[in-house]
Amino acid sequence: MTSIRSPLVDSTFDVVNWFLDRALNDGEYLQPQKLHRLMFLAQAYCAVAHNGRRLMPAVFVADAMGPLEPNVYRAFENERPWISEVKMSEAAKQVLDSIWRRFGAHSADHLSRAVRRHPPYVDAWTEGPRTVITEEAMVAFYGQFQAGKTPALRDDPGADDADAAPALETVLRPRVLRSHKGRPVNAMPWVPKARKDP
Q: Which domain of life is it from (predicted)?
C-alpha cells in the first residue's frame, strides 16, 4: 500500500482565500469559474514540481464548464464564508504566486477553454459528468512539457498550441536564494525524468 504524503497546505480554503485576496489586491473580482481553473492548475503543477505531492487536500471533478472542486463550489455558492487565515509554507506560496503570475491575467473563459482540451479533463468527462480527475493524470499530462518542446496531443492534427500546457519551468517561478558570497541565485526543485520502460 502506497502512503500519501501530506499536502503543502492544510485546507483547500487556504488556497481559495489566497487567490481571492491576491485578486482583490490586484483590483480584480475573481469569478468562481476562474478560481476553480486556477486551483486545478495549481494542484497539477504542484504535483509535477513536488513528485506527486498535492498542494491542497482537494478533489477535482469534470464539470461541463471545466474542472471543479465541489466542496469549494458548495461553500462559496452564496457568498465568501469567513475562514481564519493560516500561515502557509514558502513552497505553497511559491506555487500560488507562480500560478497567479502565469495564468491570472487570463479570463475565466480562456482558462476553461484551454483546460477542457487537456487529457486529464477530457478523459474524466468522457467517463461521465462529475468523474474525479486524478493527480496521476494531471502529473502525466502537465509533467510531459518541457521548455521549448511541445509534444503532440493525442495525435490530433487539429490540436494547436492552445491545447498544450506551459512547461513547468515557464510556470513556476524560481526562488531566489543567496550564494555563500551573497550573490542571488535561482533555485528550482529537482524533478526526476520520467522512467521509460523497455
A: Bacteria
